[in-house]
Design goal:
alpha+beta, 453 residues, Transferase(Phosphotransferase), domain 1, 3 domains, single chain, 14% strand, binds adenosine-5'-triphosphate
């Protein structure tokens, strides 16, 4: 491409250059002969001193001189233009090397975005960075110990399978969440590496931001942005039993989650399947903006044989085809999303214990009642019962029923789910519904910003 461009630009020079050569070789042989005087730039003085007989040949010579002067002028102008063009092209390619975008470059720019997100910490002068893992800043372990009060119990935000998450107060008044993983077993280490690798490349308003990492012996640390309202699981099934979440906020959380998933499935290159979507992995900030977290189990399309991976995830959220046959697709995430939607509607856990040895899944329990309009209002979470337009309730229930279909091909794509939810969420919360009577009591203080669907 560059060579063709260069040839194209050199064309005028070559065209103009040829006649100059012809002229000079025909009129003026390389070694001047006695009959032909050498070239002089002053033809007028020459004609004044020449006898009449040689006037014809002198006139010819003068014409030739003129032609050559013009040719030289044109040639040097062309050459100047060519040099200028080549210079411009060189500057363009050295300044904007990635302008010719292709899929490889999209991935690179994702990584750059990740780097931008991770570099939030570097703005804080007192935070000691000791290196980089990929493009993730490594934070001094001692500083993390200090910021969590030596991992004191009162700093614990929650507990997961591989360790606890702590609230940490870094200098410069920055509060963050610190996940401390005990990597004695190889799975924890793999999940740690996987989470860092994926989250460092992803930046989206509905995906948690990775700020840094650290390690000490077998302990691994991941530092995230702090989500002040904890997880959806804590909000729904914790001590407040969902009382902080009205109908509109619940629909907003469902919409945000769908936006995050759509980004993973359709905008990441290669696409990402989360594989562990559940209410404890949906985190809420001060304004109840929802963000997906926990990418330890997430896989990218093509990174490994999706039909031959270790069965992982959380009971109650696993799609039947994945649980029974290990078949994993983006529709597995859609199934888990359907279960979360049922939790939001019904306020029930995905798996309820009926007796010490007997469990019941929310899907099998709710399915017959979800499709019966007379029964549906009776199973809605008492906290939000009768607070919504019944039409909207039926619509959301229908979406949930579709998402948890046993046959994956009957489930919608997350993009379809997203578009069905947008009209049910007030504009102030990121949807398109106009609710004039909506007061600040049911909305967070400020509207959320910048939704990248
Ligand atoms: N960035 C964060 N901000 C605020 N709270 C968080 C943050 N990350 C996690 N938490 C809290 O810590 C809890 C534990 O998180 P963790 O991801 O370790 O386990 P989990 O998702 O509950 O379970 P599992 O290990 O099965 O995935 C979460 O449920 C949430 O309440
Ligand atoms: Mg989690």
């Amino acid at each position: 491409m560059k060579t063709k461009l260069l040839l194209f630009l050199l064309m005028p020079f070559l065209i103009f250059h040829k006649p100059v050569c012809v002229l000079s070789s025909e009129t003026y042989p390389l070694a001047p002969s006695p009959q032909v005087p050498p070239f002089s730039p002053f033809p007028t003085s020459m004609s004044a001193s020449s006898p009449g007989l040689v006037m014809g040949s002198e006139q010819q010579q003068m014409d030739s001189h003129k032609k050559m002067v013009i040719a030289i002028a044109v040639a040097s102008t062309s050459l100047g233009a060519v040099i200028l063009c080549v210079l411009c092209i060189w500057i363009y390619y050295t300044k904007f090397p990635s302008k010719s975008s292709n899929r490889k470059n999209v991935k690179n720019s994702d990584a750059e975005k990740g780097l931008a997100s991770a570099s939030i910490l570097s703005k804080f002068s007192s935070i000691k960075m000791v290196g980089k893992k990929g493009c993730v800043p490594i934070i001094d372990y001692k500083q993390i110990e200090k910021a969590t009060g030596n991992f004191k119990e009162s700093s614990i935000l929650g507990e997961g399978g591989f360790g606890c998450v702590y609230k940490a107060h870094l200098d410069d008044n920055l509060d963050v969440a610190v996940k401390k993983l005990n990597c004695e077993n190889q799975f924890a280490e793999q999940e740690f590496e996987n989470e860092l690798d994926l989250l460092s490349k992803i930046q989206h308003p509905n995906v948690i931001s990775l700020l840094g990492c650290s390690s000490n012996g077998e302990t691994r640390i991941i530092v995230y942005e702090l989500m002040q309202n904890g997880s959806l699981e804590t909000q729904l099934h914790g001590s407040s039993h969902g009382s902080a979440l009205n109908w509109h906020l619940r629909m907003k959380i469902a919409l945000d989650t769908a936006r995050g998933l759509k980004y993973l499935h359709e905008h990441c290159c290669p696409p990402v399947i989360h594989r562990d979507l559940k209410s404890s992995n949906i985190l809420l900030d001060t304004k109840f903006n929802a963000k997906l977290s926990d990418f330890g189990l997430a896989i990218t399309d093509g990174s490994q044989n999706k039909n031959n991976i270790k069965l992982s995830g959380t009971l109650g959220y696993l799609a039947p085809e994945y649980l029974l046959d290990g078949k994993l697709t983006d529709k597995s995430d859609v199934y888990a999303f359907g279960v979360v939607l049922l939790e939001l509607l019904l306020g029930r856990k995905p798996v309820e214990k009926l007796a010490p040895t007997q469990c019941q899944s929310i899907v099998t329990w709710a399915m017959p009642q979800l499709t019966d309009r007379s029964k549906l209002p009776n199973i809605v979470d008492p906290v939000i019962k009768n607070t919504m337009d019944p039409k909207h309730l039926y619509q959301v229930a229908a979406v949930a029923v579709l998402c948890v279909q046993p046959e994956p091909s009957y489930r919608p794509l997350i993009a379809d789910v997203l578009h069905s939810l947008i009209p049910l969420v007030p504009v102030e919360l990121g949807g398109t519904m106009r609710v004039p009577q909506l007061t600040q009591q049911v909305l967070p203080a400020d509207p959320p910003v910048d939704f990248n669907q």
